[in-house]
Amino acid sequence: MKLSRITVYQIDLPIAGGYSFAKGKVVTTADTTVVRLDTDDGITGWGEACPLGPFYLPSYAQGIRTGVGVLAPHLIGLDPRQIGALNTRMDRELRGHAYVKSAIDVAAHDILGKSAGLPVHALLGGRQMDAVPMYWSISQGDPDDMRRQVDGARQVGYRQFQLKVGGVPADDIERIRAGLDGARPGEIFLCDANTGWRRDEALSVARATADLDYIFEQPCDLYSDNLSVRRRAPHTFKLDESLQSPQDVSQALHDDALDIGCIKITKMGGLSKSRFARDLCAANGIAMTVEDVWGAEIVTAALGHLAISTPPDAILNTTDLHNYNDVHIATGAPQARDGKLLVSDAPGLGIEPDLEVLGKPVAVHE
Ligand code: 0XW
Ligand code: MG
User: Fold this and answer.
1) Which of 192, 220, 238, 267 to mutate to test the pocket of ligand 1 (most atoms within 8 A of CB)?
2) Domain tally for the chain?
3) Residue 180: what pLDDT?
4) Tag placement on the chain: N or C end, fewer CB within 10 Å?
5) Whole-model pTM above 0.90?
């Protein structure tokens, strides 16, 4: 089987009310890229990558489209089922830029699954549970409004809530107090600063909320600042943006820098590297959020397959990113029910893109 064509689509995903996080960053429309791989024997694979604006991680939407164009001539003619060799080639031809490679690696998994008649989760270790617990992410805003949103998510079955902080520390302390007000036994709260605080700000928020039980997520930008805060703050500590490769995970494990990890497929550069990072965490007793940066149905499918094949002891939660948007690009994506994500056993990713919504391709490489 040979890769014969790479087609690239761009879709705008409007987010109702916008999504606001650290230091006043707001995304009202997410720019997503869908990559379609066609093969000479008629099997098609799909992948998607969607940065959360150019200011969340060192990645931007146009960079994916340009980077796929740089990689394409080196990939056409390869067998996409040889996913390790495909990744080796991508890493040789384009150094770094993990996020550019992610959708291609995901689409190759879709092809391998379809050609074997197996769901992608079977390629990643196999189904380990019926459904994966989910969290609901609450955009940064007025503390009372955030509390109401926690309550709304609770009504539809969620037991895990992520509060976006990382703004002015005094306001964030109020957000945390409001969000956790009325917390019920068994519920889990994650307060995610998305790198927004300085070291001293993170410490003052941690001290002012030391009486509350929640997970302190990625307070600072620099790894060294996070490590320092982690050693002095009383809360369970989660690293997200600091983990951008399996090597980052190894370093953090070595340094005892985290209690919880966050595997985002695009951040790591695809399912292959995410699976490796996931298994490294699991082998070291570290539970994870298994998810992605942002995206629509194809992103949710890929993260759902990775999440459902994670050892149950090692999964904290996952998310259905397509349900944060107002445009839908495919059918067959994992569905949320009672705060849990259900993932199908259909071959490949199990999704069928809506070609009308995808529109005219922005690039065709053959
Ligand atoms: C990447 N986010 C800002 C969006 C996802 O919902 C999760 C969140 C995070 O940083 O964990
Ligand atoms: Mg996070």
Assistant:
1) 192
2) 2
3) 98
4) C
5) yes
